[in-house]
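Hi F.,

I've been meaning to write this up properly since the lab meeting, where we talked about keeping a consistent format for the predictions we share between groups. The idea is simple: the sequence comes first, exactly as it goes in, then the structure tokens exactly as they come out, then a line or two of notes. No screenshots and no reformatting. I'm using this chain as the first example so we have something concrete to point to.
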Amino acid sequence: MDVMIVDDEPGARRTLRECCAREPDLNIVGEYGDARSALEAIRARPPHLLFLDIQIDTQNGVALARALDPDTLPMIVFVTAYHDYALEAFEVSAVDYLLKPFDDDRFRKTLARVRRRRQAESSLDRSSVLSTVLAQLERGARTGSDSRPRILAESGSRMHMLDVAQVEVVEADRNYVKLTVGRETFHARSTLQQAEKSLQSQPLQRISRSCLVNMNHVREISRTPRGDFILVLAGGTTVTSSEGFRDSVRQYLERLKLSPLGRDSGETVTG
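Output, unedited:
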């Protein structure tokens, strides 16, 4: 099968390229980081299989998929990191998806479904189902702000749907973020800034360069001898603010009190 990869993250393209290279029946004929170049290449030489990131530079994969010729429509595997769209739409039989980060086992399962579908379905079948899926994705994007936001994250080899209101702590972990929910931790391929945007409906407070706290879950606050804040979350996790963010944390907490927080070390506030 001729394969094209469209993703604006070089690391994501590399991962897909390496996975495809291990499959003897896959031949990568193109790799693109922007929607315009990708669309021109697909129209010039339609691949059999397209790995398509949902969010590409200033465009999105939904718009690109809409622009494809239905007569030469490839099998499409959408690639995404978060539940920013209606992922349940992917459960239809003609379209598959990969959630970042994915492992070799998940890639092979996706490829097995692609191979089966390619034998069973025509371009007309794929076009009809894809049209329905894209409509669902677009509705999900429009109404996402009105619904209860959720994100997808990984624990072990499984993906979990998390209600953003349940996330207590978000911490940067190289190319991922670690999400703490109660006594459990999950990982998602994202930057801290991207995670902050996905959880913007929550009262997040940055307490260090690498840590965000959902203040709805703070149950106890104390101070270190040097004056940094120690926050105890509902699930038992304890995090400490850094010197550079001490004042911003203080200002946030002072807005919640009838009188300003004192500066004495060892002060404890429970809630």
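Notes:
Confidence is low (pLDDT under 50) at residues 262-267.
The chain has two domains: 2-143, 150-270.

If this format works for you, I'll send the rest the same way.

G.
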